[in-house]
Amino acid sequence: MQFSVRVTDYQKNTMLNICDAELLGKKIIQDELNMNISETYYGEKLIEKEEATTLLKKSSIINMVGKETVSLSIELGVGSENGVKLISGIPFLIVFKM
Q1: Could you read off the pLDDT of 16-51 as tens digits, one per residue?
Q2: In the chain, what are the domains?
Q3: Which of 32, 41, 46, 81 has the fewest Cβ atoms within 10 Å of its own Cβ atom?
């Protein structure tokens, strides 16, 4: 399984945008909700699960989309199922670590 990521520094925090690689470039729509999983936001590089695990653990702000990505974050204790939202059946989660 590959993940597509973009890592940036935001106000002295590491911000991670991560998605399941196969979602990159897709648009998901449900009612008034509309999400563009763009290469400019999520597409800096493709990584494997081991590197995704490291990035999820060390990042302070995480925007994630996709079943594999969200499942991995929950498995690691980084994300919580309570915060997961679905858009057309695709999970989306934002995490802010304090």
Answers
A1: 999 999 999 999 999 988 899 999 999 999 999 999
A2: 2-96 (3.30.1860.10)
A3: 32
